[in-house]
Every structure is written in C-alpha cells, then in structure tokens.
Design brief:
This protein is mostly helical. The chain has a domain of about 80 residues. It has three helices and no strands. The longest helix is centred in the C-terminal third of the chain and has 38 residues. It is flat.
Length: about 140
C-alpha cells in the first residue's frame, strides 16, 4: 500500500514539474533583456516610450509561404513514413510465416497487414488532399 502510494505521488509530482517547465521555459526565453521599463508619468509628463523593435528571422530561408511550409512538412512526413510502412508490411509477412496455421496467430498477422495498409493509405491520402487543396488555393489566388 505504501509503495503504491509513493509511486503515485512521485509520478504526479514529476508530471507537475514537467508541465511547469513546459509552461515556464517559453516565458523565460522570450523575456527582454538589457532594457529598463518605461517610467510612469506624473500627470504633466507622459510616460516614456520604449523603442524596442522585435524581428523574427525565418529559420528556413528557402520557404517563404505557408503553402511551401506545409509541402515541406508533408514531404518530410512521407520520407519518414513510407519506410516505416514498408517495415510494417515486412513484419506482418514475418507474422504470417511464423503463424504456422494457428488461427489466433493468423488473425494477428492479418490485423497487422490490414493496419499497415490503412496507415499507408492515410499517409498517401493526406499528401494527396494537401496537394489538391494547395493547387486549388494557388489557382484561386
């Protein structure tokens, strides 16, 4: 009983710390440094204006549009996803070979093949839909 309670408390504590860091670190990283806050006016003098300008540099200079960004992301997902699909199909073939006629093992192999094919269809379907939307938007604008 004590051991399970301690594990539960430790797990919740670690999750709380992780969430706190995920929420606090971005705030700290966007904090301004080296500037004094503007002073408050006293009725006759207006508050001082701050001349801080913020520029955001494009980390991928070859991509200048949202369309190009989405295409780049999808191409990356397809380059990673298709080998994974191929490995999943090979794995399901291995399951078929190792089933040796056992009905429950054959069902597992069939399910693995079905899910691999469904994953490939979703991957390629997402790319096709994105291409269709992209081409339609480019023709409209």
């Amino acid at each position: 009983m004590y051991n399970n309670t301690m594990k539960f408390i430790l797990k919740n504590f670690l999750i709380t710390i992780l969430v706190a860091f995920v929420l606090i670190i971005p705030i700290l990283s966007f904090a301004q440094n080296g500037t004094n806050p503007p002073t408050q006016g006293n009725g006759t003098n207006p508050p001082a204006q701050s001349n801080v300008s913020v520029t955001i540099n494009n980390p991928i200079p070859s991509i200048t549009t949202v369309d190009g960004f989405i295409k780049t992301i999808l191409i990356g997902v397809i380059k990673i996803g298709l080998p994974i699909v191929a490995l999943a199909i090979i794995y399901s073939g291995f399951l078929f070979v190792s089933a040796r006629g056992k009905p429950e093992a054959l069902k597992k192999a069939k399910d693995a093949l079905l899910y691999s094919v469904i994953g490939a269809a979703i991957l390629l379907g997402a790319w096709a839909i994105a291409q269709l939307i992209s081409d339609t938007v480019l023709k409209l604008g």
